Amino acid sequence: MTTPPSDDTLLALPKAELHLHIEGTLEPDLAFELAGRNGVELPYASVEELAAQYDFSDLQSFLDLYYATMAVLRTEDDFAELTRRYLRTAAAQGVRHAELFFDPQAHVARGVPIEAVIDGIGGALAEAERDLGVSGGLILCFLRDQPVESADAVLTAALTRPERLLGVGLDSAEVGYPPELFAGVFARAKDAGLHAVAHAGEEGPPSYIVQALDLLGVERVDHGIRAAEDPELMARLAADGIPLTVCPLSNVRLRTVPDLSAHPLLRLDAAGVRVTVNSDDPAYFGGYVGDNYLAIRDALGVTAEQAERFARTSIDASFAPTARKAELQAAVDAWRS
Ligand SMILES: Nc1ncnc2[nH]cnc12
Ligand SMILES: [Zn+2]
């Protein structure tokens, strides 16, 4: 019997976060602060009343609150402050590289210029690189429940600010919005030199994972946990080395798994699938990435060796330059000894 790794050991483990919606890091206290500053009315009387809404029945029930609350984000400074706070917390939990999803269509629809969104988040990333030693970039997510023309328009706008843009992704309500709808806009993003990822197999069927691979050409699958229902698909993911960005606490809160002890993470890992551990929307789901590592240790008995493998995979599966990946793997070597 090996002793379980301590909290400090897991939090200190150098890791990359590859599945994090920056809007999902909006904690209730900052939401109220920004609402006051920007004259936006939240339909809740207090921080406590807002936090009391965080009891979700499925993905859509979460998304309704997520989009409503992000309405407080209006200025470049708001996005910078949000990102600064996330990166500080993440750094304290061992994150050394972070690839941040953002949902520009939701902000542009409220009249926020995409430049304010990208420059705010990008500015905070540049600061974190300098002050915290955390590298990173942005992944523009298309909202799959919005028309594809809107995705096309936001890609065109974002390509005027390509500096910190690593890639494109696909998120929001999954069932009924298969990846195939977005093949054209993904092809255009890849032609522009961007990486591609997509949420698939969170609530949607394993066939959406297959579509994301075959029709969007994704390099990583976000969530992807429903691959565990399909042995042939697991074998394909393992053979092709396709990483999954798994978010254990999110899956419990959105009821895609009944509880953490039933989570397929270790079944996927045992089938040879490259899994990484991430937080998704930590302000809403009860924990940042380090908290996810602690939770899978407690519920699934994840060992130090397994945690190290997940962290190494997160670094290797990131879109960081090769030299940066080597630096981060060396940091894991140092953690180990
Ligand atoms: N878990 C999730 N799934 C799909 N879209 C999202 N947007 C923010 N979080 C999401
Ligand atoms: Zn997500």
List the helices and strands and how they pair.
Blueprint: H1 7-12, E1 15-21, H2 28-38, H3 47-51, H4 59-69, H5 76-92, E2 95-102, H6 104-108, H7 114-131, E3 135-143, H8 148-158, E4 165-171, H9 183-191, E5 195-200, H10 206-215, E6 220-223, H11 231-240, E7 243-246, H12 248-253, H13 265-270, E8 274-277, H14 282-285, H15 289-300, H16 304-316, H17 322-336
Parallel strand pairs: 1-2, 2-3, 3-4, 4-5, 5-6, 6-7, 7-8
Bound molecules: adenine (ADE) and zinc ion.
Zinc ion is lined by residues 19, 21, 171, 199, 222, 280.
Provide a brief overview of the structure.
With 337 residues, the protein is of the alpha/beta class. It contains 17 helices and 8 strands. The protein has helices at residues 7-12, 28-38, 47-51, 59-69, 76-92, 104-108, 114-131, 148-158, 183-191, 206-215, 231-240, 248-253, 265-270, 282-285, 289-300, 304-316, 322-336, and strands at 15-21, 95-102, 135-143, 165-171, 195-200, 220-223, 243-246, 274-277.
Question: Can you characterise this structure?
Answer:
It catalyses: adenine + H2O + H(+) = hypoxanthine + NH4(+). This is Adenine deaminase. It comes from Leifsonia shinshuensis. The chain is α/β, with parallel strands linked by helices. The protein has a single domain, classed as Metal-dependent hydrolases (TIM Barrel, Alpha-Beta Barrel). It has helices at residues 7-12, 28-38, 47-51, 59-69, 76-92, 104-108, 114-131, 148-158, 183-191, 206-215, 231-240, 248-253, 265-270, 282-285, 289-300, 304-316, 322-336; strands spanning 15-21, 95-102, 135-143, 165-171, 195-200, 220-223, 243-246, 274-277. Strands 1-2-3-4-5-6-7-8 form an eight-stranded parallel sheet. The model has no long low-confidence stretch (mean pLDDT 98). Bound molecules: adenine and zinc ion.
